Amino acid sequence: MRASVTTGAFIFASVLAATSLFIHADSNTSVSEQDVSKVLAVSNDVAYGEYLAGECASCHATTAVSGSNVPVIQGASSEHIAQALLEYRNGIRDNSTMRNVVSALGDEEIAALAHYFAQQTK
Amino acid sequence: MKKMNRRTFNSLMGLGAASLLSPSMVMAQGKPKVVIIGGGAGGATVARYLAKDGAGAIDVTLIENSKTYTTCFFSNLYVGDVRNFDSITHSYDSLAAMDGLSVVHDMATGIDRDAKTVTVAGGAKIPYDRLVVSPGIDLIYDSVPGYSESAAEIAPHAWQGGPQTELLKAKLDALENGQNIVMVAPPNPYRCPPGPYERVSMMAHTLKTRGFTDSTITILDTKPKFSKQGLFTEGWEANYPGVVEWLPPEIHGGILNVDAAAGTVETDLDTFEGSLLNVIPAQRAGAIASTAGLTNDSGFCPIEAGSMRSTVDENVFVIGDASIAGAMPKSGFSANSQAKVAAMNIRGDLLDARVFPARYANTCWSLISPENGVKVGAQYEAGEDGKIVATSKFISQAGEEASVRSATYQESIGWYDSITSDMFGA
Ligand SMILES: Cc1cc2nc3c(=O)[nH]c(=O)nc-3n(C[C@H](O)[C@H](O)[C@H](O)COP(=O)(O)OP(=O)(O)OC[C@H]3O[C@@H](n4cnc5c(N)ncnc54)[C@H](O)[C@@H]3O)c2cc1C
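C-alpha cells for the assembled complex are given below, as produced in the milestone run.
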C-alpha cells in the first residue's frame, strides 16, 4: 500500500480565515423588542424584500419538508423574522449557514425581508 | 394536468409546423420574448421567475432536450442507497402549466445573434428579445488519454444526470468483494468541486454496507488538492479505514492511458486495475455556447458580474456551469442564484422593472456517511474588478460532534426540496 497524502494544514488555514469573519464586537447581547421595531421601521420596501427573498427560497420551502431542519418562514410575523435575523447577526443564534446569509444583510435588508415574508400566506 | 400537457403540445406543434402562427403565438405577439436554452438548475429557475414575476407580461420559451431532469445534486446519495432514482428525477409539467411559459422539448442547434433567433433540431426558428443560455457542461473526453464517449458506456463519468448515473450505480451494485474501484478525478474548473469526493464516500459506504472488506477505492487525481479535503480525509479515515486512497499527480506522475474494456488506468507510477472505473474528464460550457461564439479561450462564457449578461452580446445572459462566475463554484445552488439575478435584469430590460444590486449565494453540502454531512458556503457580489467576489465564507470544522453533522445533513434535505421546487414549481 502506498501512503495516502493529506493536505489538512491547507484546510485548517482556510477554516481559521473563514471563522475570523464572524467575530463581531456586539456578539451575544440579547435583541430587545425596541431593537426589532427600530429595524422594522428602517424600510417597508416589499419589492426589495421580494428580490432578497429569492435567496431564501433556495433553502426555505413553503411547506414543511420531512427530515429537514430548515423552518418554514412564509407568513411568520415581521417581528419574528427580524428578531431571528438580528439574533443570527449578533451570534445569539449560532447556525453557521444562517450566520453567513445574514452577514450580507444590513438593517434595511432585514426590514424589507421581514415585511415581505409577513405578507406571504403560510 | 390536462392543461399542462396541452400547452407543451401546442407549443411543439406550433414550432414544428412551418408557420409560427399557433393560437398561443398570435396572442403573444407584441409581448417581449425571452428564450431560455437548458432546463436545469439555471434555466428552469429563470423560466419560473420570469413567468412568476413577469405575471404573463413576457412570453417565455424554455428549450430543454430531455422530458425529465435528473439532478446531479443528490445523485451521489442515490449511488450510496440513501435516495432512490425517482426522488432525484423531476418533470416539467408544472412549469409548462404556468401562464406565459412554453416548454419545448427539443435540442437547440444554433443561435443567430443578429437575427435574434434560436434554431431547434426540429427545424423551427424561435425569435427572442433576450436569450438565456444555461446548457451546463460538456465533457472533454479526450482530456483523459484513451477515454471517449463510447468508453463512457463501460467506464461511466456520471457527471451528467440520468442514464450515466444509473450506469454507475448498476456497475457498483454488480461488484463483488475484492473487486476494486478506480476514479479519475477532473482538473479545475469543473461542476461541483466536492462532488467526486462525496461520490467516493458514498461508494465506500455501499462497500461497507455489503461487507466488502477486501475492496478498495483509488482516486487518481489530476490536481494537487481538492475541496473540503481535510473534512473528507478525516471522514474516510474514521468511517472507511484502509478503503480510500487518494493519489495526486505528484505521486502517480500523470494519467497515461485508460483502457475501459480491460478495466485499467495506466500512470507513470503503476497500472491500476478496477472492475469499476469512474472517469471524470475535464469540462467546458455546453456546446451551444461555443457554437454561438459566447465562450472565450477557457471554454466557458465571460459575463458581467452585476447581471450575468454576456460580455459578448448584451441581449444574451449566460448562467450556471457555462458561465465564468468569478469566485462562485459551478454548482446547482450557484446556477439557481445567478438565475434570479439574470431574471431581474431581463425584467428591467424588457418591462422597466426595478433592478437591485446583484447578490449571489452558494452552499455545497456533502455527505461523508449517513447522517454525517459537511458544508461550505459563501455570499457574493459584483466586485470592483468586474468579477464576482465572495463577501463572507464558512466551512464545517474538523472533529465536529455527530449531532452537528446530522443537523448539517438535515439542512441539505430541506435545501434539496426547496431548490427543486424553486426550479420546477412543484
Ligand atoms: C455528482 C454531482 C453532484 C453534485 N452535487 C451538487 C450539490 O450537492 N449541490 C449543488 O449545488 N450542485 C451539485 N452539483 C452541480 C450541479 O449539478 C450543476 O452545477 C448544475 O446542474 C448546473 O446547472 P446548469 O443550469 O448550468 O446546468 P444543468 O443543470 O446541467 O442543465 C443544463 C440543461 O440543459 C440541457 N441542454 C444542454 N444543451 C442543450 C441544447 N443545446 N438544447 C436543449 N437543451 C440543452 C441539458 O439537457 C440540461 O438539462 C453536482 C454535480 C455532480 C456531477
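Residues 402-424 of chain B form the longest helix (23 residues). Residues 16-136+286-357 of chain B form a domain with the FAD/NAD(P)-binding domain fold (CATH 3.50.50.60). Further analysis is deferred to the final report.
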